[in-house]
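Researcher: Let's run the pair from yesterday's discussion. Sequence first, then tokens, for each.
Model: Starting with the first of the pair.
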Amino acid sequence: MSAFGPASAHAATHLRSVLERSAVGALALLPAAVTAAALSPHAINPAGIAAGLVLFAGASFLLGLLASQLAAGVDSAIFRQFGNRLPVVLLRHSDATLPPAAKARVHQALMSRGLPLPSATVEAAGPLHADQSYREAVAWMQARAPSSPVAGRVTRAHTLYQMRRHACAIRLVGLAVAGAMLALSVLIAVRQAETAALPAPAVTIAAVVNALMLAAWFLEARQGAVVAAAKAYALRLFTVASPADAAPVEARARRVADIDRAAFRSTSDSTP
């Protein structure tokens, strides 16, 4: 049983990762599926639906694999200055994401569990040595997270972070598919309007869905959204060390995510 437990946990983690990637791929291909259904109503029958679902699932999986491959580039572009370990940065005394009092409680909670953390003076004198201590603390929290009282919150934050990484990685694909399907559905709607009083309701719905998906890919699959999700995950991860502080840290995580996303939306994004 001792061997079965870790194996099961590893299989569950792998499956969750596959589903996360495939979900992002499905979102990228959704405009094409909606448009195809609107333009080919005769194909909406049991056989057509079954074939469409198989094709859609397979394409989503393959696109998810592509997103996974490209996500490393997203990390490199966004977190180069953080050493690709944002939770480590947020634990530093020099970082102001958490208020000093909240950070002191997190540090104290970690030290009470036998994890030696440096003081502000020691960190300033030896930042590389301090970061090693913070990495060990982050690894401890990540290992303990699945059995923590706040495991659900941490898992949801990590899932959102991973999905945003993958969405940012295939942002151009999502924008291209949504833009092309929006143009096609609008063109069909205009041609239908020239020969009838109103375009077909299915085509109108497809145009609206495609417009919404185009806006979502433009606004939400940005580097700023990935950074905000990463910070929110890091802050929720800290609650593993001190579950009693979960509510204040959760509120802080939401505020940080909102501020970061608003800031990145108001400036030009380096992602095309």
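Model: Moving on to the second of the pair.
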Amino acid sequence: MDERFTTEELLRAGPAAAKSLLLACGEGDGPQLLGMARDLAEDLGRQLEALASLPPSEKSSLDALLEAALRCGDLATLAACNAGYLSPHGRRLALEAARKAREVTAGVLAGLEDDREAPGYALRDARSADWKASLALRQLGEEG
């Protein structure tokens, strides 16, 4: 992804992705399975909202950004794994959730790759999260 996002934009995109997935899970036929997916999306949304609500001095911390990327990788995977149970409108919402999640993972990874002093573990975690989000997009029928 060529676009660069601010830390604030990256951290706000995570909860928005979770909200899209929550809406998507209300658009399907697998009530029990989608109920579990909805609970997981809600939990990930709370975690991402907590990161987005950090004080400004903590928002740009490596830990906060990595945590957001990892949670977004999980969120995109959840969207892809449950898309088959969703209505056409729900699948569009799941795709939207995965796209937003990928913006976060790709943005965090790009920032770390630009930082010549980024720790190896951080690059590894960010690459893993971005790979998961990219795979989810491919599973949803879009090039990631």
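Researcher: Give me one sentence on the second I can quote.
Model: The CA atoms of residues 116 and 123 lie 11 Å apart.
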